[in-house]
Design goal:
By secondary structure, the chain is of the alpha/beta class. Helices cover 47% and strands 22% of the residues. It has five helices and five strands; from the N terminus they run βαβααααβββ.
Length: 116
């Protein structure tokens, strides 16, 4: 699994960049991060030691349900589900919905952080 590039820049700059891309004024470079955090604090919360360990477990066992992942990690399903949704909102985790279940998949277990 390849390292995922994540960036840190202010909310205002993220907004300006997004609007510039939408207007065609900014063309993202090949190596630019696709995931942006508004602060190092928010990055540290989402990519905490526990959450990075969770990503490794997901990559290793490839759970078929959140309940299976909860059993493997000893985390409570409700709290785990909330964590996974947050990580999915940032694009770090995929939550594939199939046949009445949600299959969690880690998009990365290693990260390169770019700050601006």
């Amino acid at each position: 699994m390849k390292a995922l590039k994540v960036g840190v820049m202010s909310k205002e700059k993220i907004r300006e960049r997004t609007l510039g891309i939408a207007r065609g004024e900014i063309i993202p470079k090949h190596g630019d991060p696709k995931i942006w955090f508004a602060s190092m604090k928010s990055l540290a919360e989402v990519l905490s030691d526990d959450n990075r360990a969770l990503l490794h477990v997901m990559a290793d066992i490839k759970p078929e349900t959140i309940a299976e992942l909860a059993r493997a990690t000893g985390r409570k399903p409700n709290n785990l589900s909330r964590t996974l949704k947050t990580m999915a909102n940032f694009g770090i985790v995929e939550l594939k919905k199939t046949d009445h279940k949600v299959v969690p998949r880690a998009r990365a277990t290693q990260f390169t952080v770019i700050t601006t």
